[in-house]
Amino acid sequence: MPTQTTSSPRPLRLRAIVPPLLILPTIGLLLSGVITWINIGFADDFTARWIRGFVSALPVMLVAFASMAVLDRKVQQVFAGQSALVRKLILAACTACMMELLLASAVTLSNRGLAPGFASAWGAAFLKSLPVGLCVSLFMGFVIKPRLDRLAASQ
Q1: Is residue 6 part of a domain?
Q2: Total number of domains in the chain
Q3: Angle 24-153-88 from CA coordinates, rounded to 5°
Q4: pLDDT tens per residue, range 47-56
Q5: I need a surface site. Which of 45, 93, 99, 139 has the fewest CB within 10 A?
Q6: pLDDT, tens digit, for every residue of 90-128?
């Protein structure tokens, strides 16, 4: 007599957990690479400094990622009268500014230390990497997050 097997909930949980775990390091690699390039250019030791900047940015990214839920709630409260599109755009801009501020600080500190010129190097890294951060935030808010929300709802 054939027995029916029930599908284990474990693969479904993995499908819900793995994408967010892959997204954070991917964003970190991209943004730390851009900031390292802004700080030192494509020097001989670019790859080593990029990896060091990425490793130093990971803890900062975890804090920023955790605070995004709070930021999302605040944007929803403060701009409740605005359309969903406007709220998403505001959230993307705030998220990009927060992430670039923190990542530019961590990666520039990793690449240059507190040597003279740190403030100007940090400012250049922040301002020049902000367009990339805005693109990433818009992509996350309009493409990735809705897909992750649908995936979580189907669980």
Answers
A1: no
A2: 1
A3: 55
A4: 999 999 999 9
A5: 45
A6: 999 999 999 999 999 999 999 888 889 899 999 999 999
Mean model confidence pLDDT for the chain: 86
Report CA dihedral (52, 63, 154, 143) to the nearest 10 degrees.
-70
Cα separation, 69 vs 81, in Å, equals 20
CB atoms within 10 A of CB 72: 17
10 is a domain residue: no
Give the span between the Cα atoms of 88 and 103, in whole angstroms: 22
Classify 128 as helix, strand or coil.
helix
Q: Which domain holds residue 28?
A: 15-154
Query: What residue has token string 């944007």?
Result: 75
Residue 116 placed within a domain: yes
Among 128, 104, 132, residue whose Cα is nearest residue 118: 104
